[in-house]
Queue: 2 jobs
Job 1
Amino acid sequence: MRIDLHVHSNVSDGTESPTRLVFAAQEAGLDVIGLCDHDTFDGVAEAREAGRRIGLAVLPGVEMSTRYKERPVHLLGYGCDPWNRPLLLELTKLRVSRVNRLQGFLDKLSELGMPLTAEDVQESKGLSPSLGRPHIADALVAKGYVANRDEAFAKYLGDGKPAYVERYATPIQEAIRLIRGAKGLAVIAHPWGPGAKDVLTGDALAELARAGLEGIEVDHTDHDPRSREMLTQLGARTGLIRTGSSDYHGIGKSHNPLGINTTRPTAYQEIVNRIAARGGVGPN
Ligand code: AMP
Ligand code: ZN
Ligand code: FE
Ligand code: FE
């Protein structure tokens, strides 16, 4: 069984519709995907319907923008009730903050000699309810200012780069509580990717495990073999489930093909069992 527990559709900053994503996953030889769009569940119903039709399991998920010690941390929530009010309200707040920071990006890009309008970004965002920096990157590509998303992030949009603008992120302990309150299971995405590596220490992970965190993503392209080994040990010590994923974004992140990293069936089964035990939403 091949299980890829963190993929994106064009409902956030991936490039394929939920249906196409499910087809692509089957073509890539996967049996299970976890759909984890940024700050929204809007793609889940479509992906599950497509999965039911072709016999591919879709575990519902979300990738929440959180912070720990003022650093950005992405938190995956699996199996949540997608109608849970407190969680939905917080996701709405996150998406509003995504839109509110757009003007800041446009102002900075204009100062840098790369004028863009909100309409240009709207064009690249399409119908996604979750505006992301990759959409701004795509607008820069369409204008011919940069060649691709990677160049846009490396030169202008990445954290600390000249056009970067901060936004609201949920305190991670609160996000863990919200996910758990919605009968879901919280897993930190790419904990030692760029952003929070130095604050997400073994002690920090133990503290978050006490706050209800249940897993960490270990096998991810952001982690080198040494980091994976260390995270595996830390996870075992703190009783956290270890997962793996591609963090696929379609052609939006060309170095992350579907299934490049996977989750062990035993870890997946544990996640599914825990979600079922608390009445959350399991795979279709
Ligand atoms: P945002 O959530 O709007 O702050 O945008 C961050 C998202 O941009 C991340 O979740 C990644 O999916 C994406 N991202 C970060 N770096 C890159 C990159 N170099 N190329 C393409 N996408 C990226
Ligand atoms: Zn993304
Ligand atoms: Fe992420
Ligand atoms: Fe992601």
Job 2
Amino acid sequence: MLLQVPRVLVLGGTTEGIELAARLAARSDLVTISSLAGRVGQPRLPDGLVRIGGFGGLDGLLSYLEKEKIAVVIDATHPFAARISRNAEIACSRLGLPFVGLLRPAWTKSEKDIWHDVPDVLSAAQFVDKAEARVFLSIGRQELHIFSDCKDAWYLIRAIDAPAERLPLHHKIVLQRGPFDLERELQLLRDHSIDFVVSKNSGGAATYTKIEAARLLGIPVVMINRPAKHTLSSVASVEEAITALDDVLRLHWRD
Ligand code: NAP
């Protein structure tokens, strides 16, 4: 008789998702399936099994979890990916599945940082779009269209893949994938005489160097605050997520 092992779904698209998959795929007491939304043309592929693309809303996710006999869901998506987290929480609660939310801590402002906190991307666009302003826009591709009505400032837009979205009138695109080195970030901001950095408060180390560079150069950062994500309690690191997973497996999984 084949020994059944629990199947763990890791909702990823983040550094934590990659790290979790690397740790869990090495284990023989479970099977790990990572899920990516499919936004990036050539994503970094996690270890273990991988599926790519949306599930088709809450109903699609419910069917997927049942069909694939998922035992536990770990939500390691980005702090700004709120919809998938909400769907995952609801789906797990409806099916009675354990859910582990992993949310990396937000960056906090130090004394030398000049931050202007805004609640969302639209507020950031309204704040920076001033004549003569030179703006470093590093928020990914998906919400760039919110800047498309900006006609006054000049934007240096960084993304992994070339944006297909409508863009602000005056701009230049640089295609780069993190993590980014501090020296290069300093150079980028200096070379383009940047006046404002626009950033999501993503947290984590991979993109923090732009915040450090802005601090060192005395450049204000328009910091977009996080949306509400998990309603259940969450953990803050890969290590804690693995401990939480082992706890729920001990409690819920009987072979
Ligand atoms: P979102 O607004 O929460 O989700 C939008 C839709 O994308 C979801 O309803 C779902 O489609 C699909 N989706 C999202 N994450 C998925 C995943 N891991 N696997 C399968 N489908 C997923 O998310 P988002 O802000 O568009 O982010 C998409 C992905 O990019 C996430 O995996 C996230 O970790 C990663 N990411 C996002 C950001 C950011 O700034 N938002 C930054 C870095 C990485 P269905 O409803 O069809 O299931």
